[in-house]
Design brief:
mainly alpha; 2 helices; Spore coat protein; Ferritin-like_SF
Length: about 80
């Protein structure tokens, strides 16, 4: 397993944006599925909500793995 390197501020911004986007997609898919009357479309939306939840959890896990490398003080 390769040695983890600290995440840069720019990478952290990208990850935060990605997590925000995944969260929005989860909410949109879930809300759309709840209001959907077509069972096949509802199934696709439910599946997509699960896929985006997995993406969100993967990003969160990656952040948690890198947390021990984060500096304790803001970098100047």
């Amino acid at each position: 397993m390769p040695t983890l390197q600290p995440i840069t501020a720019k990478e952290l911004e990208y990850i935060a944006d990605s997590m925000s986007n995944e969260d929005l997609l989860i909410k949109q898919c879930t809300a759309s599925a709840a209001n959907c009357t077509n069972p096949q479309v509802k199934q696709v939306l439910d599946h997509q909500a699960q896929v985006h939840t997995q993406h969100y959890q993967t990003l969160m896990s990656m952040l948690q793995q890198h947390q021990p490398l984060a500096p304790m003080q803001p970098q100047s």
